[in-house]
Amino acid sequence: YIDWQDYIITVTRGGLNVAGNADEAVSMGVEGTLSWAVSDALTLRAMASYVQAELTADEPDLGGADGDQLPDTPEWQAALDAEYRFRVADLPAYVGAAWRYKGDMPVGFPGYTDDDGVYWAPSAPRVDLDSYSLVDLRAGVTAGPVDVSLYVTNLFDEWAYTSFDSNFNGASLGTPTRPRTYGAVVRWNF
To answer: What is the C-alpha to C-alpha distance for residues 62 and 111, in angstroms, rounded to an integer?
Structure first.
């Protein structure tokens, strides 16, 4: 639980993004992680978090009303991971898979009409980012001090924005998920 006073938030002024303040906001949430060694070879992990982060007062300068969700804060995030360890030619080896989820989230405030009927425009265009899920795979083997592993991230080549920076000058920038990526890592432990 966090009761924010003068919460720092990005606002757009004259086409530029600058730091601004929201007078009052609150963030309440819970996060949990569970790790289970099913056997000596198999380990399962799970993580989930829920956050309710919102303004607790009208913010005319930002275009946000009491109760609006804070930007860049997904309510839900989760992850699952499984790893199986075994031996190949008497060398320790493993295979694993992970699933990551990030819930939808707003960027900016939507604007609102106050009790007197006055419309307060947002300080930047409101963008709602969709939720997404990513699946990663990995496998490796250890030979003495050398670890060799192969991996695939974003196995299904899911495309989504992970963050977005919008403003009224038309130069909005978004950061997409990394496309499907294959790789290898060689690590020398000393």
So the answer is: 8
Q: Which amino acid is at 115?
A: D
Sequence letter at residue 6: D
Let me know the angle formed at the C-alpha of 84 by 81 and 86, rounded to the nearest 5 degrees.
Answer: 160
Band of pLDDT at residue 167, cut at 50, 70 and 90: low
Report the sign of the C-alpha dihedral through residues 109, 166, 161, 33, in that order. negative
Q: Is 1 exposed, middle or buried (0-12, 13-18, 19+ CB in 10 A)?
A: exposed
User: In whole angstroms, what is the distance from residue 142 CA to residue 146 CA?
Assistant: 6
Query: How confident is the model over 104-150, as pLDDT tens digits?
Result: 999 888 888 888 899 988 877 788 899 999 999 999 999 999 999 99
* Angstrom distance (rounded) from CA 26 to CA 124: 21
- Interior angle at CA 181, CA 129 and CA 166, nearest 5: 25
Query: How many H helices and E strands in the chain?
Result: 0, 14
pLDDT at residue 41, rounded to an integer: 97
> Do 83 and 95 form a contact (C-beta atoms < 8 A)?
yes
Two tokens at 105? Answer: 């989230």
